[in-house]
């Protein structure tokens, strides 16, 4: 396996679930895109390939919301659940063969505990669990995904400093690099802790890069400036489109506000891994890639 090194800017993909929905899949499900690991794996390959074709260097797997507990509710035993989690890495690898290129990295997605509850609590944190309970939940997922040999582990959309600490400790012995990205609001995590404290976790040898994702594009640059004051390690930035989610009506509201100009500013602020999250499509990633390559565009 190649060593994942962030010694040059890399373009991340966009919203995998958004792309799958655009392909006609209904994902209003507790497993979200992870359901398609069993039901339509070829469609996941096609979505990854679309982002590679658009200019992404990194594919993020359909494992964000996957858990042993979630699969058990669908009648899968632990062996079957583990097989599907490993499949998420295999499908992203296959997409790199469908759309070959110089950089075809696979990031295994590890979402927060709240993501598996499918109730929006990944944007609040503080689930009432002890650090040991969080470790018992996350470690088997991490170990299973590590068995599939992804290039990097994406500890993403983390709302809470305590959960981030548990994750960083859990990945320390796995032998696979990890990036850690928080979901934020202003200068604090969604759980309310100062970002200066959150980004201090970059001091761990287990953390290859640190930053934010699944947040408002306007919050990215100030957060990156806080992160740069905390560490010299590469920074990560992949926000949402800027649209808002109306939970009552189950609809997106407002207009997209992610722009290539923003992506250039994030790169100037130290972001070496730049892309998008929810509602960010392949054409948006193409614009980001072109902006990073051509500072005059």
From TrEMBL:
It comes from the Bacteria. Zn(2+) binds at residues 214, 277-278. Pfam families: S-methyl_trans. Its EC number is 2.1.1.10. Residues 1-292 form the Hcy-binding domain. Keywords: Metal-binding, Methyltransferase, Transferase, Zinc. Coiled coil: none annotated. InterPro entries: BHMT-like (IPR017226), HCY_dom (IPR003726), HCY_dom_sf (IPR036589), Hcy_S-methyltransferase (IPR051486). It is an enzyme of class 2 (transferase). Transmembrane segments: none annotated. One of its GO terms (molecular function) is methyltransferase activity. GO terms for biological process: methylation. Its cofactor is Zn(2+). NCBIfam families: PRK09485.1. PANTHER family: HOMOCYSTEINE S-METHYLTRANSFERASE-LIKE ISOFORM 1 (PTHR46015:SF1), ZGC:172121 (PTHR46015). This is Homocysteine S-methyltransferase. It comes from Saccharopolyspora mangrovi.
């Amino acid at each position: 396996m190649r060593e994942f090194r962030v010694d040059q800017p890399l373009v991340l993909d966009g919203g995998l679930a958004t792309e799958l929905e655009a392909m006609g899949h209904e994902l209003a499900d507790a497993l979200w895109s992870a359901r398609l690991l069993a039901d339509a794996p070829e469609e996941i390959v096609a979505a990854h390939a679309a982002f590679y074709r658009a200019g992404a260097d990194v594919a993020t797997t359909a494992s964000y919301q996957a858990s042993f507990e979630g699969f058990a509710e669908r009648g899968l035993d632990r062996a079957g659940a583990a097989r599907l989690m490993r499949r998420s890495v295999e499908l992203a690898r296959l997409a790199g063969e469908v759309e070959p290129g110089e950089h075809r990295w696979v990031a295994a997605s590890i979402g927060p505990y709240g993501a598996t509850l499918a109730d929006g609590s990944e944007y609040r944190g503080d689930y009432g669990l002890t650090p040991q309970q969080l470790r018992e939940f996350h470690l088997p997922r991490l170990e299973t995904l590590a068995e599939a040999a992804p290039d990097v582990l994406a500890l993403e959309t983390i709302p809470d400093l305590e959960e981030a600490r548990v994750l960083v400790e859990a990945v320390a012995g796995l032998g696979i690099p990890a990036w850690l990205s928080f979901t934020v609001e202003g200068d604090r995590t969604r759980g309310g802790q100062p970002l200066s404290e959150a980004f201090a976790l970059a001091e761990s040898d287990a953390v290859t890069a640190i930053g934010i994702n699944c947040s408002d594009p306007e919050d990215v640059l100030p957060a990156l400036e806080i992160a740069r004051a905390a560490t010299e390690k590469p920074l990560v930035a992949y926000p949402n489109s800027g649209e808002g989610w109306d939970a009552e009506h189950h609809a997106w509201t407002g207009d997209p506000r992610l722009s290539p100009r923003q992506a250039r500013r994030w790169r100037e602020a130290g972001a070496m891994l730049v892309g998008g999250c929810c509602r960010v499509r392949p054409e948006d990633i193409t614009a980001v890639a072109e902006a990073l390559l051509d500072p005059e565009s």
